[in-house]
Specification:
Strand content: 5-15%
Helix content: 25-40%
Number of helices: 10
Low-confidence stretches: 1-32
Number of strands: 15
Largest sheet: 7 strands, mixed
Strand order of the largest sheet: 7-12-3-13-14-6-15
Oligomer: single chain
Mean pLDDT: 85
CATH architecture: 3-Layer(aba) Sandwich
Number of domains: 1
Distance between the termini: 42 Å
Structural class: alpha/beta
Order of helices and strands: EEHEEEEHHEEEEEHHHHEHHEEEH
Radius of gyration: 23 Å
CATH topology: Alkaline Phosphatase, subunit A
CATH class: Alpha Beta
């Protein structure tokens, strides 16, 4: 395997490859090139305690409400966005399942038990447009498994997914750390990198081509096409040198493979999945990731937090504003932001040649509701961290609440994020406007 300092360029032609000497001008151009822009989301369900979720001022002196206290060390690295909403979520008669699966699409959620339909989420639009640049188009992770029961006559698959590959199909969510690790170090599908198996299969397949009927030949060609797609993934996954431009600083995992079994406590599970998001971006295995810390209507138990009793997440967030329950709700909110702060910290610590990985990334911490107890969808709590490769000014509290509905649509925010990822759309969801001031 070649390191960056020994990597050589080649002149190729007529079947001959001649190694060039190391050219300093080309090395300097490579070192100066920017890493790619990445996007990751950390989602938690059932909203926030509104009285404690606020931000004032700017920069190092920005004041953060108690809910956002874990983010205080990173005040200059974040933007706190207040007032963004999805019109279709506000209109929905379903207080949870009509206001959660569409948070990243702004689409109408079908409440017909026989029809699963919601919009394609913007992270999956990104995956479809630029996901071919990496071995894994997008990483979709969670802590809790998909639920298939009904809630108020509607499928809980809605409450188990924020990433939707199509309007009727959620993106496959991985909750096992070991399987996620295998996805990152293999060929992008969870299989190990093994060219010898493919070579043997292709040799046998090619030997059959002259000995089969026309209809069978078509089937064989389709089979070979599928093999070639795997081959392409392997080549992309195992390619270690790039003649021009940025290359990842990490070529092999810098963490051990997690155990096969599911972690037996929530903190360990969440930390492992956050570390895997970091690893995925460090190795440039993907540039798009979402992590659901819990499902909507979550039954996750938060009894591991000091001072939290009656510890089911759903009960803590639907508490009728009782004082003791409000304090525990605040503590669970803070715990979720502690996870987001951990991700920011990890990204900020990673040097990519004079800039941190946070400088080239956009990290979104969010929930689908504002006031979880009241099922308030008139705004969503959004915190955006990172510089987006120089495209984002940080250290700000941006309040859109009183700027008119057309100027506070969450889909305008998503259009602005997609622009920074190199995907420009004329319209997305319920708007064709970009978000002002971002």
């Amino acid at each position: 395997m070649m390191t960056q300092s020994t990597r050589r360029n080649f002149l190729r032609g007529a079947g001959v490859a001649l190694a060039l000497p190391r050219l300093e001008s080309r090395a300097m151009a490579t070192a100066a090139s920017k890493p790619p822009t990445r996007f990751a989301c950390v989602y938690f369900s059932n909203g926030v305690e509104p009285a404690h979720w606020w931000a004032k001022g700017a920069g190092a002196s920005m004041e953060l409400g108690p809910c956002l206290k874990p983010l205080e060390p990173y005040r200059t690295d974040i933007n706190v966005l207040r007032g963004l909403f999805n019109q279709e979520a506000v209109k929905s008669s379903s207080p949870h399942l009509g206001r959660m699966p569409n948070m990243f699409s702004g689409a109408t959620v079908s409440l017909d038990p026989a029809v699963i339909r919601v919009g394609t989420s913007f992270d999956q639009v990104l995956a479809q447009r630029i996901g071919n640049q990496t071995a894994i188009p997008s990483l979709v992770l969670g802590i809790e498994p998909n639920e298939l029961r009904l809630e108020d006559g509607v499928s809980m698959i809605y409450g188990s997914a924020i990433s939707w590959a199509t309007p009727s199909r959620p993106a496959t969510k991985e909750i096992y750390p070991a399987r996620t690790f295998d996805l990152l170090v293999g060929d992008g599908s969870g299989r190990p990198l093994d060219r010898s198996v493919l070579d043997a299969v292709l040799q046998d397949a090619h030997s059959l081509q002259g000995r089969v009927s026309g209809s069978d030949k078509r089937k064989l060609d389709e089979y070979l096409d599928s093999i070639r797609s795997i081959e392409t993934r392997i080549e992309r996954a195992s390619k270690q040198e790039r003649i021009e431009g940025w290359r990842p600083m990490l070529e092999k995992p810098n963490m051990p493979r997690p155990k096969n079994e599911m972690p037996q406590n929530v903190p360990d599970h969440m930390k492992l999945m956050l570390d895997l998001v970091v690893l995925a971006f460090q190795m440039d295995r993907t540039r798009i990731a979402t992590l659901m810390l819990n499902n909507d209507l979550s039954q996750m138990n938060f009894g591991f937090i000091d001072g939290v009793t009656g510890a089911l997440h759903l009960d803590l967030t639907h508490n009728g504003k009782a004082a003791a329950a409000e304090a525990m709700y605040l503590r669970t909110n803070q715990y979720h932001y502690e996870q987001f702060a951990y991700l920011i910290k990890r990204f900020k610590e990673i040097d990519e040649g004079g800039h941190s990985m946070l400088d080239s990334s956009m990290l979104l911490g969010c929930s689908n509701l504002f006031d979880g107890d009241a099922h308030g969808a008139d705004q969503m709590p959004f915190v955006l961290a990172g510089g987006g490769n120089g495209s984002m000014k940080t250290g700000r509290a941006l309040d859109y609440l009183n700027k008119g509905d057309d100027n506070r649509r969450a889909c305008s925010f998503y259009l602005s994020l997609m622009d920074r990822m190199g995907v420009q759309l004329e319209r997305f969801g319920d708007t064709d406007r970009r978000l002002a001031e971002l």
